[in-house]
Design goal:
The protein is of the alpha+beta class and 508 residues long. Among the domains are: 93 residues, Beta Barrel (OB fold (Dihydrolipoamide Acetyltransferase, E2P)), CATH 2.40.50.140; 26 residues, no CATH class. Strands 6-9-10-15-14-13-12-11 form an eight-stranded mixed sheet, sandwiched between helices. The protein has a five-stranded mixed barrel with strand order 1-2-3-5-4. The protein has a two-stranded antiparallel sheet with strand order 7-8. Helix 6 packs across helix 9 and helix 8 packs across helix 10. The structure holds adenosine-5'-triphosphate and manganese (II) ion. Manganese (II) ion binds next to strand 14.
Length: 508
């Protein structure tokens, strides 16, 4: 074969061209992340950094550019001397533009940083027209930033939140991995709607304008892609149980979808859930695991995300100042996090909780929107938060709920009235974890399914595990975004997921 001389010739010419241009440094030196420059600075070193301009302060003699590349909340100060660069280039450096800067690390003259970068080469990768760029160096409202979710990761607040979110994903896997749990991918498309109660998103390839019909006029799902009705999953639990009854301790960490019309600060239509499922655990073992996991995660954030948490702490204190005295929280964000790490959670039964709530001030003075009258009704978020924030002043685990307000798979207690369910309630959030000991007795489970109109024939595979080598087992679900809300102190769940999906909103 004839060697491709043309290629070599081009390559050689390109190399020579690079060496001649001012971009030589930029092309030939590897990029250093700003986090590294600031955490272990080497004064005198020649480096290249790349990032987005947060601010530029220019005077006649010098321009200071604050550059951020997302590796840390801190900016690197770049010093640009007008003697070295053309005015035209300096004017193209505006808030939001993207640069590659080569230069020398020097000790900083100004306060606020130890080192700065003396620029010797600058390439503007992308300009950002100041007339059009929506993120100006000032405080924007969270509502406004939701409308520009494609750009909000470039703010300090969202940079911090998404770095913490990443650290927490890692921490979740570390916690379970270190305990020997097996991570299982449960399906995202499911054929069962056992739990969905109609609050599922349908998955179909049928033509909505002209669907095939059965003889009695219903949509004929036999003609659909899966030859049956299919949905996006609302929980990986049922499949998780199948795996736990073989691998003994498993967890899932996947997306879940709920078509519930809850326009609250704690509900998303698409969210991520962590669902451990453990053979040979009773409800108490499961509560212990839940408490240990939450403490581990909070502690991990305190240890690994200090810079970002410090920023969010100050941010939260600023927010607090604008609230009336009565609504301010007693603890700061960091105090709340440390409190959770250092204190045991309260554990009480549903029945005890009802007694506390019935005799509480807001109930007697009819301040609750839903008054607590008798035993048996579901608790609303206002009740959960009263127990956590006013009565116990710490996280609370509620267990042994009335069977009628809970799911079919929860294990019946000997009283015949309650099931071995447990919810973990957190300050500012309400329910963060929901779980139970599962009904492992075949007859009890089948009876309960029939009583609650769960299609037991369709769920033969679930019942099979109770027929063949059944075992006591338990599990729970942790809403990942609610956890991130607690750790970051963000009031609205839409601000802890990069691109929130909620009723009426699916942009980006
Ligand atoms: P809630 O009563 O708050 O609507 P739930 O009882 O329906 O929650 P579960 O089915 O028990 O929730 O789900 C387990 C966990 O998943 C909850 O404890 C919560 O942390 C989280 N979660 C549930 N629904 C949502 C949602 N729509 N958006 C975000 N997280 C959710
Ligand atoms: Mn629940």
């Amino acid at each position: 074969m004839r060697p491709n001389y043309r290629f070599f010739a081009l390559y050689f010419r390109w190399q020579v061209a690079c060496q001649r241009t001012e971009y030589y440094d930029i092309i030939m030196t590897k990029r250093t992340k700003i986090a590294k420059v600031l955490s272990s600075p080497e004064v005198g070193q020649q480096i290249t950094v790349k990032g987005w301009v947060r601010t530029k302060r220019a005077s006649k003699n010098v321009a200071f550019v604050a550059l951020n590349d997302g590796s840390t909340i801190k900016n690197l100060q770049v010093v640009v001397s007008p003697e070295q660069f053309e005015e035209d280039l300096i004017t193209r450096i505006t808030t939001g533009s993207c640069l590659a800067v080569g230069g020398r690390v020097v000790e900083s003259q100004g306060s606020g940083q130890n080192v700065e970068l003396e620029a010797s080469t600058i390439e503007v990768y992308g300009e950002a027209d100041p007339e059009l760029y929506p993120l100006q160096p000032k405080k924007h409202s969270l509502e406004f930033l939701r409308e520009i979710a494609h750009l909000r990761p470039r703010t300090n607040t969202f940079g911090a939140i998404f770095r913490i979110r990443h650290a927490m994903i890692f921490a979740v896997h570390k916690f379970f991995h270190d305990k020997g749990f097996v991570n299982i991918h449960t399906p995202i498309i499911t054929g069962s709607d056992a739990e969905g109660a109609g609050e599922t998103f349908r998955v179909t390839t049928l033509d909505p304008k002209n669907p095939p019909l059965t003889q009695d006029g219903a949509i004929d799902f036999k003609e659909d892609f899966f030859e049956r009705e299919a949905n996006l999953t609302v929980s990986g639990q049922l499949e998780g149980e199948l795996a736990a009854l073989a691998l003994s301790e498993i967890y899932t960490f996947g997306p879940t979808f709920r078509a519930e019309n809850s326009n609250t600060s704690r509900h998303l239509s698409e969210f991520w859930m962590i669902e451990p499922e453990m053979a040979f655990y009773d409800i108490n073992d499961s509560m212990d695991l839940g408490e240990e996991m939450l403490r581990f995660l909070v502690n991990y954030a305190l240890e690994q995300c200090a810079d970002d948490l410090d920023f969010l702490e100050k941010r939260a204190l600023d927010e607090e100042k604008s609230k009336p005295q009565a609504e301010r929280s007693e603890m700061s964000l960091l105090e709340r996090l440390k409190f959770v790490v250092e204190n045991d959670f309260a554990r009480i039964t549903y029945t005890e909780a009802i007694d506390i709530l019935r005799n509480s001030k807001p109930n007697k003075k009819k301040k609750f929107s839903y008054l607590i009258e008798g035993w048996g009704s579901d608790l609303q978020s206002e009740h959960e938060r009263y127990l956590v924030e006013k009565h116990f002043k710490k996280p609370v685990i509620l267990f042994d709920y009335p069977k009628d307000i809970k799911s079919f798979y929860m294990r019946m207690n000997d009283d015949g009235k309650t099931v071995a369910a447990m919810d973990i309630l957190f300050p500012g959030i309400g329910e963060i974890v929901g779980g139970s000991q599962r009904e492992e007795r075949y007859d009890h489970l089948l009876t309960r399914m029939q009583e609650m109109n769960i299609p037991d024939k369709e769920m033969w595979w679930y019942l099979d595990t109770r027929k063949f080598g059944t075992a006591p087992h338990s599990g729970f679900g942790l809403g990942f975004e609610r956890m991130i809300q607690f750790i970051t102190g963000m009031g609205n769940i839409r601000d802890v997921i990069p691109f929130p999906r909620t009723p009426g909103s699916c942009e980006f």
